[in-house]
Each structure stands twice: as C-alpha cells, then as structure tokens.
C-alpha cells in the first residue's frame, strides 16, 4: 500500500463518523493502492502534519519555483545580488547614492534584468503568482498520512487481511468436506421406493448410499 490518499466528498446520505473525532462527516480519504479509506473532518487536513500533509503536483511545484525566483529578484533589486558580500556592498551603495543603482562589482549577468523590468512590474507578477499558488493549494486533493498514522492503517489492513484469510480457509475446509460424509451427517430416512421391502431395509443403512 502506498501512502497516497485522495480527498473525496460523498453524498449526505453516506455520512459517517470522522476517524479522529467521531463527528459526522462527508469527507473521505481514499487510497487506491490499499484499497483503504476512512472518513475525516476537513479541518483535520489543514495545518495538521501529525495527521496528514498535502501532496502537490508538478504544476504547483513549478509555480512555487517561479514565485521563489521572483522573490529573489525583488530582494536583489532592493539591494542584494549574488553573494552576501555583494548584497552588503549594494546596500551601502544604495544608501550612499540612490542614483548609483548598479555597483561596479556586481555580477554583470544580473544587471540587465532589473533594467528591463521595474520593481513594480516584478511585484505585480509576484502577486499574480502568489494568487495562482493559493488557488492550486485550495484545489489540491492529494494527501500523505503522517508515518504513525499510515502505519496504523497498514496494521489495520493486515489484521483485516488475516481475518479474511481465516474465513476463506474455513469456507474452503467446509467446501472440501467429502460430500458422502456430509450426506451421512444429514441423512434423512429414505422415502420407500417401488422395489421390495428388503431393498428399502438395506437402503437406510448408513454408508450404503
Ligand atoms: Zn473530526
């Protein structure tokens, strides 16, 4: 079983009690690989790493990376670029002279960027990216249980499997019983047939069937 649970909503009539607090809930965490599922309140899925954490997709990761680089760009425009020494130097330069935006010792690869876009433009793009990220976060349906939580589900599954196996073996034992033996156990007096009385007498003997 993989630790991957999809959050699903069920109809009101299928409401069952939450695994954590036993309150009635219509939210189910479903694991295809088990299969395993249980009910939970939505609130337990928010900022609750002891229970579960969201698993984001590639799109989310890409947007997050973009947002981080925009944040860096904003920071570097505010005075930092490259190493911390450079950033310190830049800050000093900016403080000393507001017109001296580009200190001479700045990495030349970084200089064309700020010239193309203004701080406000980058900020705008950053805000838009943040909005996208928030939307994606709300849309996310995948969760990973905490290691302890997942382990308890795995153990539960194992116990269920064992019980199922026991039941299967019992049923198998029953099915494998010799049909003749069963018939002897549940034999009923035979209805006299049209042959002679002596024959009927023989037929009721166990084992003669
Ligand atoms: Zn609950």
TrEMBL record:
Gene Ontology annotations of biological process type: vacuolar transport
Biased composition (Polar residues): 190-209
Sequence segments annotated as region (Disordered): 162-209
Biased composition, class Basic and acidic residues, residue ranges: 162-172
Entry's Gene Ontology molecular function annotations: ATPase activator activity
Coiled-coil portions: none
Gene Ontology cellular-component annotations: endosome
Protein's UniProt name: VPS4-associated protein 1
Organism: Naumovozyma castellii (Yeast)
Gene: NCAS0B04570
């Amino acid at each position: 079983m993989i630790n991957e649970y999809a959050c699903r909503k069920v109809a009101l009539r299928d409401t069952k009690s939450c695994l954590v607090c036993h309150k009635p809930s219509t939210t189910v965490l479903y694991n295809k690989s088990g299969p395993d599922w249980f009910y939970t309140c939505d609130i337990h899925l928010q900022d609750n790493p002891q229970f579960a954490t969201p698993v984001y997709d590639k799109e989310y990761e890409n947007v997050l990376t973009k947002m981080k680089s925009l944040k860096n760009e904003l920071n570097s425009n505010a005075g930092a670029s490259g190493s911390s020494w450079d950033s310190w130097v830049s800050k000093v330069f900016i403080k000393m002279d507001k017109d001296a935006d580009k200190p001479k010792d700045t990495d030349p690869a970084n200089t064309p960027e700020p010239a193309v876009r203004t701080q406000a433009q980058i900020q705008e793009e950053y805000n838009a990216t943040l909005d996208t990220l928030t939307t994606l976060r709300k849309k996310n349906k995948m969760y990973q249980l905490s290691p302890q939580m997942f382990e308890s589900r795995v153990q539960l599954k194992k116990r269920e499997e064992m019980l199922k196996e026991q039941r299967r073996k019992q049923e198998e034992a029953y099915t494998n019983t010799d049909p003749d033996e069963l018939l002897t156990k549940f034999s009923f007096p035979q209805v006299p047939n049209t042959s002679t009385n002596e024959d009927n007498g023989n037929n009721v003997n166990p084992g003669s069937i």
